[in-house]
What we know:
This is Peptidase A1 domain-containing protein. Belongs to the peptidase A1 family. It is found in: Secreted, Extracellular space. Keywords: Secreted, Signal. By secondary structure, the chain is mainly beta. Helix content is about 15%, strand content about 35%. Strand 8 and strand 9 form a beta hairpin. It has helices spanning about 1-20, 90-95, 190-195, 305-315, 365-370, 395-400; strands at about 35-40, 45-55, 60-65, 70-75, 85, 100-105, 115-120, 120-125, 130, 130-145, 150-165, 175-180, 200-205, 215-220, 225, 230, 235-240, 260, 265-270, 270-275, 290-295, 300, 325, 335, 340, 345, 350-355, 360-365, 370, 375-380, 380-385, 395, 405-410, 415. It is globular and about 65 Å long. The chain has a 20-stranded mixed beta sheet that branches. A 4-stranded antiparallel beta sheet has the order 20-19-27-28. It has a 4-stranded antiparallel beta sheet with strand order 23-24-30-29. It has 2 domains: about 1-220, Beta Barrel (Cathepsin D, subunit A, domain 1); about 230-425, Cathepsin D, subunit A, domain 1. One 2-acetamido-2-deoxy-beta-D-glucopyranose binds near residues 152 and 434.
Amino acid sequence: MAIASTFLLFHTFVIITTFISSSLAYTTFHPKALVLPVTRDSLTSQYVTLLHQRTPLVPIKLTIDLSGQFLWVDCENGYVSSTYHPAHCHTPQCYITGSKSCRDCSLSRPGCNNHTCNLFPNNILTHINEVGEVALDVVAINSTNGSNPGKMVTVPNFLFTCGSTNLLKGLAKGVKGMAGLGRNQISVPSLFASAFSFHQKFAICLSSSTTSTGVLFFGDGPYVFLPSIDVSKSLMYTPLVKNPDNSAGPIFHGRPAAEYFIGVKGIRINGENVILNTSLLTIGNEGEGGTKISTLNPYTVMESSIYHAFVDAFAKELAHVPRVKPVAPFGLCFESKNLGSTRVGPGVPPIEFVLQGKDVVWMIFGANSLVQVSNDVSCLAFVDGGVQATTSIVIGGYQLEDNLLEFDLANSRLGFTSSLLFIRTTCANFNFTSSSLSKETF
Ligand SMILES: *[C@@H]1O[C@H](CO)[C@@H](O)[C@H](O)[C@H]1NC(C)=O
Ligand SMILES: *[C@@H]1O[C@H](CO)[C@@H](O)[C@H](O)[C@H]1NC(C)=O
Ligand SMILES: *[C@@H]1O[C@H](CO)[C@@H](O)[C@H](O)[C@H]1NC(C)=O
Ligand SMILES: *[C@@H]1O[C@H](CO)[C@@H](O)[C@H](O)[C@H]1NC(C)=O
Ligand SMILES: *[C@@H]1O[C@H](CO)[C@@H](O)[C@H](O)[C@H]1NC(C)=O
């Protein structure tokens, strides 16, 4: 028995290692990091990236999901590629996904082949969730030295899951799937890290404008933004916290969580503690409570009691500025002309998310705390998640813009910069002009 299972373990290890290193076999150039553009869709506020896939290569628009477990794309409509391979049951590709489902589908087209393993691609926005074939195809991406895109590199057998066209409902126009950047073995960052033997690390910098481009890095820094500012020097760190369960909703209960939680211990406004029920800030046995980061929420969402305490405290610190009628979904609004202006946005009391110790804080200034909703009115850009909120605080996109976040999985920590406006740059300042016109050929 013992010998048999040791052998099985060894065997599994060998095939997984072989599978991962087979991605390397074709590459002669070893990039240190990779880069992708990120834009915000103005209608849905989704953050969208562009990844080249298939043979011949086509650019595929994908909604970014920081909590997503893997890459999925619509294979039902318009998937044409001479290098598409379904993952057949009991192969290394299936083992690595942890899939327990083996299915026959007899149309013999991308997304529907006999004897293939399956995962459950889901659209967290519409809660549509269905079975999808695991598959492999070529992905191409630009390398970077941290300052510019460099040579293009390819991964011949990049693992993903097929979804249906129905799964695209609610996603931004032109989007063909979702890029899961979650904390697990088959997320997009993990696959790039194993294909190129990188550190398990990626960084995201979301632009605050829908007309300019932010950036996603895989691998090590530096992260250089015009005019020659290496923002990796401005990072502070806080541990990433493991959630024992998946907080994405009841249908995900008991499924492995790929989300990024951090240990917010308290909130301060203008240096004053907001009085709140701190037990809501810890993660319970069923995955409830705590603070996570999500690119699918346009604004930070707080459990009701936290939200009300937070809004009241903010209003108190800004009592000298007259309020105007709130504009949904926000609860506290001001006439913009009564708010001063600073390098980091409207001159309003700073918000601090207090992390470990008393000195490690995530500072949020006017550019990330107030949103202009009309010509005259600006609102506190936080929303009420209700009393039933599973996760107590979900830090959303608006609060992340023009901040660089580095998810360092090897060291289980999050690096964050606070507003880049302080150091006179923005997430839109990565120089996307390629420094190398030559392309790597294989
Ligand atoms: C797939 O499986 C079905 C039923 O097992 C079989 O009838 C069909 O011929 C198979 N198709 C292919 C392409 O192997
Ligand atoms: C590489 O970068 C250049 C310049 O930004 C861009 O035009 C090209 O599409 C990128 N290639 C890939 C594979 O992403
Ligand atoms: C604080 O929150 C916990 C978890 O939801 C709850 O059980 C407890 O009753 C709350 N305490 C107060 C004083 O509201
Ligand atoms: C990256 O390459 C460009 C062009 O070769 C160069 O100007 C730049 O200094 C390099 N950046 C780093 C951080 O090495
Ligand atoms: C962006 O990078 C390119 C290629 O290295 C360089 O020629 C160009 O001057 C850079 N742009 C700016 C604004 O520095």
